[in-house]
Amino acid sequence: MTFLTNIHRLLRVLLRQPQSAIGTALVFFFFILALFGGQLAPYPKANDQSHDARVSPTLDIGSLQLGAHPFGTDRLGRDVYSRVILGASSIFRIAGLGTVISVVLGSALGMAMGYRGGGLDELLGRVIDALLAIPALLLALVMVGIIRNLDFQINSWQAALAGEVTLLVIAILYIPVVARVARSAALDIKTREFVAAAEIRGEGSAYILFREILPSAIPALVVEASLRFSYAIFLVASLGFLGFGAPPPSPDWGLMVNENRGGFYRLTPWALEFPALAIALLVIGVNLMSDGIRRAVQKGGA
Amino acid sequence: MTQLLDVRGLGISYRVGRRWLRALREFNLQLDAGQVVGIVGESGSGKSTAALALMHYLSANGRIDGGDLRFLGEDMLAMGAADLRRLWARHIKLVPQNAGAALNPSIKVGRQVAEALKAAEGIEGAKADQQVIASFRAVNLVDPAQVAERYPHELSGGMQQRVAIAMALMCQPDLLILDEPTTGLDVTTEAVILDLLRALIGGRGAGVLYITHNLGVVAQLCQRVVVLYAGEIMEEAPVAQLFASPRHPYTLGLLSSLPKAGQRKAHSRLQTIPGNPPDLRHVGQGCVYAERCPLVIEMCRAQKPPLEEVEPGRLARCFRWQAVDAFSGESAPRPHSRSLEMDAPAGESSTRPDGGVLTATALSKHFPVPRDLVDMLRGRKPQPIRAVDGVDLRLRQGQTLGLVGESGSGKTTLARIIIGLETRTGGGLELFGADIQGGLRARQQDLLSQVQMVFQNPQNSLNPYRSVRQTLCRPLVKLRGLSAKSAEDQALQLLEAVNLRADYADRYPDELSGGEKQRVAIARAFASQPSLVICDEPVSALDVSVQSAVLNLLADLQEEHGSACLFISHNLSVVGYLADVIAVMYLGQIVEIASADALFRAPSHPYTEALLAAIPTPDPGQRSERILLADDLPSAQNLPGGCRFHTRCPRNIGEICGRDAPPWRETSAGQGIRCHIPLDELAEATPPRQDGEGSQCLR
Lengths: 302, 699
Description:
The structure holds two protein chains of two kinds. Helix content of chain A is 74%, strand content 0%. Chain A is mostly helical. Chain A has a single domain, classed as Orthogonal Bundle (MetI-like fold). Chain A starts with a helix and ends with a helix. In chain B, strand 16 (426-431) and strand 17 form a beta hairpin. In chain B, helix 18 (468-480) crosses helix 19. At the A-B interface, helix 8 and helix 9 of A face strand 18 and helix 18 of B.
């Protein structure tokens, strides 16, 4: 039961059911775009306004035909097809990395709380409850607002960190959520007798936590991670749309929807519709996949 | 007599993944009104499948492969859902294994039972309430009107089971199917329920199917027995004949693998059935039992033996049924039998003070109960739960101490204090002559390696993500300080010692059967060469056919290492076989300590007596006179004053029992009893019992 055979088994279960197979296919499709977007986009510099893909928006109705601009061009004449493809990478990077950070830190925190118990668990548990009571988007906006308004020296590490503000916000926002799941998993697993067997062998806390408890908690954590990932994508898109995400010229899907709504929508509807479609497809895909993962894990598969 | 059920060639399959698992094959059964038929089998034998199939109730992934199922001459397989529902409401009733889970937790039990009445006979309102209360009275529920107003979780397990029985019996069903109705209960409660069932079943004219894994229960209750193995009937016979002279090697194996009355590990090994039940996904063409059968011949593997009449009224599925009688193999003597001096188990008379492995004096564990809001407002402090309360124990080198008692008596807590998983709240604990303070973290590595434990549930005691090799190597490296290389070699030797092939080293727990897992767990416990091994119900989760092999293994390893053993079990026959000394625990106290031989003889503490009497004997000729214990175990938070047992004691001698704590008296032979009744009087009043008699149970 190595890690690889587990992945293999999980994939097999995922591909068996049509819904989760579609979800998995969608996620993989966007993942490929994220990895190789630079090579796949016909205008790899389509975020650059000075690029020669620029066509007068009034002239580009014809460009909706398959050919030069299959998704059309926006009001600045940028190729929407290329911009959608290029946008995949940032959303995967921010949502993915944010999820990974929150899952790693949240699991460690939650499992330690669950295993040790006592006053610290009680205290942290209350803090987590308090954090979870605040709506995620609101908390995200507040955090972005604070971080944006801090004065950093240019080129300092703090400034670099502030550049990744969305990623940071996702990580901070989801650490307590993951910690709760990890805590309850640890609470359950620590009552099993193999943990007692390790204790009477004199194993230390770290060994018991990571070598004995963690492997059995991984299925629950994988399910939670996939769920967090789908929420993170949503959050990245939302923040982008509200203008709290990546700054303007970048091909952020949420930002693209925002830039092309209102009066522009009547002129270049495709510049809004295609990034919106991409967001929807990716969120649906991740959700279907995480449903499949949950089913597979509950069956005692992975 | 009217024939209720007529089943011929019934087959049931379950869909598991993409495969169909043939859980029941060629099942035949004829049941007349007024008859009680037992269906016995181990887990996976298809007995519960049979129970549900006979009602024509199938889970969503089940299907009927074929056959004929008639109830009162009507073809049940051809019935539609509505007809079946009418049949179930009125004529066929099932008492489920776990009544606690079968009752709806959010409806008062009285109303639930009334609903069944409404479905069956359309009776409602006050008349229904009356009948419900009458039915509760019939199953000996104390204060039935009040019980009817309670929710299931407010009732004890035994009471829940009574409610389920009342519900099933109320409509006077023609056929009653009981699916392991006493399995989750303590022996004492089981005895009460069995008695109740016997009284209720008799004279009703209903046909009863009793499904169980416990041969003792079958012998006590049934007239005819069907033995199931791997989804097929192996043998069917009247109960007396089945127990006297089995005609199938499997039945013989089951019967002879139980520890016999008075059998001790020092004299003989338990008989075992080698191997494991077959995987139902790969049922071959031969006899399903061929792989484990001592009488197997070429033909058994090539073709399936038919279920044929071997004697009038007896069926067996075996080519060699004639040879079974002659085969009844003798228990092998233990290879290097030892003689343990059986002198004073407790007290100061130990001849070798240096040989003391474990000494507990007035050992206590009180779990504090957190104050709730009401307590705070009233300024009162809740009573702690006194799980272990003043226990004195001594265990010498190489000795085996058996610890018995109902669940909730504090056995496991005591074990957890000794191993260090709990810290005591009072009294003293010495291990190997050294005083023990604090929990596990305070123990030196040397001490850790000296005391090891085998847990109850093999399912949980191995880390599912570790191979057997990893599981066995870790204690070798950690506790014995071996290098990774020599630990690997040692691990293979350990595997050999527990009779597992070397290729098991690379398997993971989910690739092992229950018995194999427990072997690995035993190997892990013995890896550090401990001087004291604590076994907490090590075989209670195992099937009979693998249980005896594990017990033999434990006895062998213990002798080889010269380890002392604290063996916890609710099964007196198992304890009687393994232990040198037996301690009986009740509500955190030890009420009797005696050598294994003496315990089964008078005098006994009244509680011991009740425990011994409660065990169903697998001998239909001997339907034991039961000493029934009223009520359930009192709460350890709110202990009865005086003698803790006085609320349930069948030999309560009056006021003194409820007022004064009874004295601890010892006989000259070192037997100790905590009772107000003088020892000689206890001895007189105890019905004479032979050594270990009446102490057998399948699990």
